[in-house]
Amino acid sequence: MTNGDKATWRTFFVHARATLTEADRSADAAALTTHMVTAALEARNRTGCATVAAYVATQTEPGSLDALYALHEADMRVVLPVTAPGNTLDWAEYQGPQRLVRGAYGLLEPAGPRLGVEVLESCCVIFVPALGVGFSGERLGRGAGYYDRALAGAGVAAQRVAIVRDEEFVPELPYAEHDVMMDAVITPGRGYVSLPIKSTN
């Protein structure tokens, strides 16, 4: 697919994810774990910052609980989103899989104290879920705007790194003025890619 509005692209990506086999999901998740830990450690070595923001992947999203555990075991402080009133995100520290509980919409969230969106200012990397990412850094989310609102207040030092499948990193996606652009993307096959890049098409 080479064009279309946001709704069309969302339908396209969601359908493609639904057709993946469990073997494909597991292979992608393992590769993403390696790339995410590498990116976090490189950022820590470069900046001295040891805090990253991540997310608990749903069944169809790229990523896994293994990635959170691996980041935690690498001595990174990991904060995760918590759904808050007013279609906003709060954040709490990841303290292991046993401390994750079902929150709003049935999503897994940390059970610890809420830290406020300002905790993102202390992060060196913010791993962001996405349905798709364009070569210029445009991110396609699910449309509710949770992450755009949260990321708009994040510290400028934090790298905004979207996590998608290889096929979800495409030359161009529609975006709006309020959309927050990504600084980089991680895919299972390509690893960490700084953005923007020039299209080869």
Automatic annotation (TrEMBL):
Residues that bind substrate: 56, 61
Cofactors demanded by this protein: Mg(2+)
SUPFAM superfamilies: NagB/RpiA/CoA transferase-like
Lineage top rank: taxon: Bacteria
GO biological process entries: folic acid-containing compound biosynthetic process; tetrahydrofolate interconversion
Alphabetized InterPro entries for the sequence: FTHF_cligase, FTHF_cligase-like_sf, NagB/RpiA_transferase-like
Residues noted as binding ATP in the record, renumbered to the chain: 6-10, 139-147
Family: Belongs to the 5-formyltetrahydrofolate cyclo-ligase family.
Protein name: 5-formyltetrahydrofolate cyclo-ligase
